[in-house]
Amino acid sequence: MPKMDIGLVGLAVMGQNLVLNMADKGFGVAVFNRTIGKVDSFMTERAGNRRITGTHSLKDLCSALKRPKTVMLMIKAGKPVDDCIESLVPLLEKGDIIIDAGNSLFTDTIRRSEYVEKEGLLYMGVGVSGGEEGALKGPSIMPGGSREAWEHVKSLLRKVSAKVEDGSPCCEYMGPGGAGHYVKMVHNGIEYGDSQLICEAYFLLKRILGLSYEEMQRIFSEWNGGELESYLIEITADILGRKDPDTGKPIVEIILDRAAQKGTGKWASQNALDLGVVASTIVEAVFARSISTIKKQRVRASKVLRGPRETFDGDGDAFVDAVRGALYASKVCSYAQGFVQLKAASEEYGWNLDLGGIAQVWRNGCVIRAKFLDRIKSAFDREPGLANLLLDSFFTKAVEKNQKNWRWVVSTAARLGVPVPSLSSSLAYYDSFRSETLPANLLQAMRDYFGAHTYERVDREGYFHTDWIGTK
Description:
Elements: E1 6-9, H1 13-24, E2 29-32, H2 36-45, E3 52-54, H3 58-63, E4 70-73, H4 79-88, E5 97-100, H5 106-118, E6 122-129, H6 131-137, E7 140-145, H7 147-160, H8 179-207, H9 213-223, H10 231-240, H11 264-275, H12 280-292, H13 295-302, H14 316-349, H15 355-361, H16 373-382, H17 393-416, H18 421-433, H19 440-451, E8 455-456, E9 463-464
Parallel strand pairs: 1-2, 1-4, 2-3, 4-5, 5-6
Antiparallel strand pairs: 6-7, 8-9
């Protein structure tokens, strides 16, 4: 029997769809799943006449592959990946390739790369975004790790990836070690921020203006035809127009307001703190999910804690447009923070990330695909060393255009007691970034007072300490 081009371990829906995608692009795929029944049902129900071989052991999977043997893992992050690697290493030969295409933490990928390559094999950590539909029709792919391995698999990965309008693949080599999984982690962090901002916009329209779901569905559909055009706005409009078949109510009304998370947003937030960069929009989005989980406490607090009693008495149509502007300006800040983090990580870990190339990879296939990623690509084309997207002329003007509405929305939300943590933290980020002076001078004085931590002066070089107690 002819040997297969690639093996894939893990036949959850993402894995199955990626197998079908690869087979439809002309590649032979051998598949394995720890639960053998999934292999058999996949071969019977979905594989059809494609060039796919089902196997019942990792040994059989590896035997079915041509050299260099390439095995892709689409399994749960953490110990399952380590266990699978341990089982695979004895079955492979020098120069063979292991690809982890799950949502692994980038530091785990760095560790695994070192281990696998000591065994004479090649290792890649590959970020894949786009969900079940993307896996089937073409995801955004962020490969990192062994450059030698990339040269072997780039044709396959590029062919199965999403494409932009000119046919360019949304798949480009990110860098060595954990670079691919790091870029995917930041992608997911931006996704957290973007999703939370959209949820806050919905909440403002619902709580302050009292709009119906039909009205909100129309508004989000209109927004998707302009500068906010994106996958997340598109699916929000679709969601708001759906009704629960059992009750006839809008489906959002019957979904419990308690949000889950898989950890990538938290990882992105923690790493931003490690690098000393600001990711406040993303961090607030993570915290928003956290506070949503204490539903029983929130129900109790709603009966005890009081907020403002006044209602909105302004122009409703104007406020809708203001929410759109606030959402766009905050979205710019969220992406700006994400790209600052990527730049800092590139310098810290020696990856030489191509920020404009990353924007291109995210242009289609992934969850955060959006019209204005073209603008981000253009910004880095104009100035590859751009320190912050807010300093690019296009984004400077875009935020300035929406600034008045942005402030009106955030202040109105505060006045009426509607929580908008990511919208307001985005505005605070913008105001902090544009401030020539901040109150950190007083903070440094306090630190020096209670801990003799020293401070710098504005009029001379060096570090200084004041004897705060002795000079009273």
